[in-house]
């Protein structure tokens, strides 16, 4: 059996630059590498990765596997897998860190099964057990109603990590590291999928992830209408964005891109106003990082009141008009 | 062209049960008897994806599930809504597997079924939420996979799949056979018709044991795991919510605005 050594981060680019999730993984990977006195390497594979490679060093990598190929510009599993499988086999790392992102969700399980090893997805916390040297992998289970700690029974130990759970290092452009351009031939005859079209469905107004205030509606809104009227009115008043829990997205009341939760977006605004949301763990997994949560719900027992800092018990149809009216008055004065 | 489809379904405790009933005791999730088992929500979407294709192109749907002690009325919902056949991998040996053990057993069963154009899976189970089994099956069978599908059309030995990406979608063409992993945008599972329920009542699922799919017990369930569950726990949350009250609900709403302004939140 080969000796497994070092930590490998599977990096991502966003608009040609090093993605924030990758800086977070490098921050986490640096800590794990220092604790075990091993190297931290980072794989970057796209059409052009020179700039991002230097950034990866500045954010903590000792070595970057820089793979450039025109077929890698847009992530497509069958081409990308050829690269990541080769780098993972050649470098035989002890730990592989991948982002729980659109790419990571699609790529990590494939890689784990190809390497014949295990994978723990959506980790919130990672630490090395000092006696066994194993990576303790903590992730939510049962829709966020519990958490589980897993360890791998096989090598490499693979995990995907949720965005915004790990801290990046301070960027240090003077850090030294090696960028290793790696040439990999991609066999296009093995690519069994073809991307015909990529369409952006960007909502108008402020992006959910960037909004300082989010006004979110749940199943209790009863239909699509209030999302376009009263919730939007409140969001506009506060220069925020409208979001939703899973039922409105599943029912087609709002676009699925507004869905906040375990299987939707993870947000962390200053103020999160949850309207007619019961607060299933599935949902709170996506908004519990908010600085202040405010809940409006007619059920005093609703779980959302356990998460909230301020709350009103009542029907949103009665609470919101008065709340908005008073708020307009206060903001004008 | 009639399409041969396999839909992987999992029986799970109702994930819509209130959070307060989920209790971890001795590293195991224990739920009160009023929490009924259901087919996982994402597998319901996978079933609906298959039914939509059957509606238009025609074909056969085989529902496939792995576990032990299935509640027949729950898992037979797949037949009631329109699946043609139900195969249960049902044995104590299948219990407590991880993604690896589960995908391995399902892939062995799919090989035994033999003919398939599309294998539909949900994006993640509603209990362990790992999101690996569909992709694992594809790797073990050596066929392509497309994830997060919200629309699927079939024609000419290929499927055209609309897959959800951050803030948009991608139209991807994949050669068949393939695994297609489905997300919620596909639409809710249709209701069973009375005729469907009556037909399902008469059908018996096919039950396969480990030997039927040619797998050693050492590769199944808990024995076949590649991850170890070291601990299951529930982080303690303390509620410190300030409830704003008023003479009327509307007054409470107005007072909330004042309070939030005071606290300089808005």
Helices and strands, with pairings:
The complex is a heterodimer of chains A (333) and B (266).
Chain A: E1 7-10, E2 13-14, E3 17-18, H1 20-35, E4 40-46, H2 50-58, E5 63-68, H3 77-91, E6 95-99, H4 102-115, E7 119-123, E8 125-128, E9 135-141, E10 146-152, E11 157-161, E12 178-181, E13 193-200, E14 213-217, H5 225-228, H6 230-237, E15 241-244, H7 246-250, E16 271-275, H8 281-287, E17 292-297, H9 304-307, E18 310-313, H10 316-332
Parallel strand pairs in A: 1-4, 1-6, 4-5, 5-12, 6-11, 7-11, 14-15, 14-16, 16-17, 17-18
Antiparallel strand pairs in A: 2-3, 8-9, 9-10
Helix pairs in contact in A: 3-4, 6-10
Chain B: E1 3-9, E2 11-13, E3 23-25, E4 28-30, E5 37-39, H1 41-56, E6 59-67, H2 72-75, H3 77-81, E7 85-90, H4 99-113, E8 118-122, H5 133-141, E9 145-155, E10 158-165, E11 168-175, E12 178-182, H6 194-202, E13 206-208, E14 227-233, E15 242-243, H7 249-262
Parallel strand pairs in B: 1-6, 1-8, 6-7, 7-13, 8-12, 9-12
Antiparallel strand pairs in B: 2-5, 3-4, 9-10, 10-11
Helix pairs in contact in B: 4-5
Describe this structure in words.
The complex is a heterodimer of chains A (333) and B (266). With 333 residues, chain A is an alpha/beta fold. Chain A is 30% helix and 27% strand. In chain A, strands 7-11-6-1-4-5-12 form a 7-stranded parallel sheet, sandwiched between helices. In chain A, helix 3 (77-91) packs across helix 4. Chain B is built from 7 helices and 15 strands. Chain B has helices spanning 41-56, 72-75, 77-81, 99-113, 133-141, 194-202, 249-262; strands spanning 3-9, 11-13, 23-25, 28-30, 37-39, 59-67, 85-90, 118-122, 145-155, 158-165, 168-175, 178-182, 206-208, 227-233, 242-243. The N and C termini of chain B lie far apart (59 Å).
How many H/I helical runs of chain B? 7
Our estimate of the beta-strand percent of chain B is: 25-35%
Q: Mean pLDDT across all residues of chain B, rounded?
A: 95
Summing up helix and strand content along with how strands pair, one would put the structural category of chain A as: alpha/beta
Q: Report the radius of gyration of chain B as a whole number of Å.
A: 22 Å
- The chain-level structural class of chain B is alpha/beta
């Amino acid at each position: 059996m080969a000796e497994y050594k070092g930590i490998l981060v599977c990096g991502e680019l966003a608009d040609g630059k090093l993605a924030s999730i990758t800086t977070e993984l490098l921050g986490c990977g640096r800590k794990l590498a220092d604790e075990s006195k091993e190297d931290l390497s980072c794989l970057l594979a796209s059409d052009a990765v020179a700039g991002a490679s230097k950034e990866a060093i500045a954010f903590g990598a000792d070595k970057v596997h820089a793979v450039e190929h025109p077929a890698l510009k847009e992530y497509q599993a069958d081409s990308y897998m050829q690269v990541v499988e080769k780098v993972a086999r050649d470098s035989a790392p002890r730990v592989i860190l991948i982002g729980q992102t659109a790419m990571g969700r699609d790529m990590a399980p494939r890689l784990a099964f190809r390497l014949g090893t295990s994978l723990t997805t959506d980790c919130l916390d990672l630490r090395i057990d000092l006696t066994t040297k194993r990576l303790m992998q903590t992730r939510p289970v049962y829709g966020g109603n519990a958490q589980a700690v897993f360890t791998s029974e096989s090598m490499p130990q693979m995990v995907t990590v949720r965005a915004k759970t790990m801290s990046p290092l301070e960027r240090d452009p003077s850090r030294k590291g090696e960028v290793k351009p790696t040439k990999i031939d991609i066999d296009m005859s093995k690519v069994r999928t073809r991307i015909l079209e990529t369409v952006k469905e960007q909502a108008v107004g402020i992006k959910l992830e960037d909004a300082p205030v989010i006004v979110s509606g749940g199943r209790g809104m009863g239909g699509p209408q209030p999302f376009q009227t009263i919730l939007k009115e409140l969001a506009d008043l506060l220069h925020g964005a409208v979001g939703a829990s899973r039922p409105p997205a599943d029912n087609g009341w709002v676009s699925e891109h507004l869905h906040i939760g375990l299987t939707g977006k993870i947000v962390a605004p200053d103020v999160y106003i949850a309207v007619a949301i019961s607060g299933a763990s599935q949902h709170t997994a996506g908004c519990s990082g908010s600085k202040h949560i405010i809940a409006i719900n007619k059920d005093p027992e609703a779980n959302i009141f356990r998460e909230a800092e301020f709350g009103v018990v009542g029907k949103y149809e009665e609470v919101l008009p008065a709340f908005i009216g008073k708020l307009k008055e206060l903001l004008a004065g | 062209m009639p399409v041969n489809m396999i839909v992987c379904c999992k029986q799970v405790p109702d994930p819509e049960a209130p959070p307060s009933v989920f209790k971890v005791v001795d590293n195991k999730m224990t739920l009160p008897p009023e929490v009924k088992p259901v087919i996982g929500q994402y597998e319901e979407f996978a079933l609906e994806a298959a039914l939509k294709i059957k509606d238009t192109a025609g074909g056969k749907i085989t529902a496939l599930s792995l576990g032990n002690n299935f509640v027949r009325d729950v898992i037979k919902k797949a037949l009631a809504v329109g699946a043609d056949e139900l195969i249960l991998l049902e044995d104590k040996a299948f219990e407590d597997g991880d993604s690896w053990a589960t995908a391995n057993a399902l892939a062995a069963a799919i090989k035994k079924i033999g003919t398939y154009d599309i294998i539909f899976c949900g994006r993640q189970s509603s209990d362990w939420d790992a999101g690996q089994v569909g992709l694992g099956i594809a790797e073990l069978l050596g066929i392509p996979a497309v994830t997060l599908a919200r629309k699927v059309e079939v024609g000419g030995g290929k499927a055209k799949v609309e897959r959800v990406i951050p803030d948009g979608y991608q139209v991807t063409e994949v050669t068949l056979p393939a695994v297609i992993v489905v997300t919620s945008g596909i639409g809710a599972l249709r209701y069973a018709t009375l005729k469907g329920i009556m037909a399902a009542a008469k059908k018996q699922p096919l039950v396969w044991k480990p030997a039927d799919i040619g797998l050693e017990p050492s590769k199944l369930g808990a024995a076949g795991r590649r991850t170890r569950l070291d601990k299951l726990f529930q982080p303690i949350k303390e509620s410190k919510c300030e409830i704003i009250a008023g003479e009327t609900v509307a007054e409470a709403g107005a007072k909330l605005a004042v309070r939030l302004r005071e606290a300089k939140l808005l």
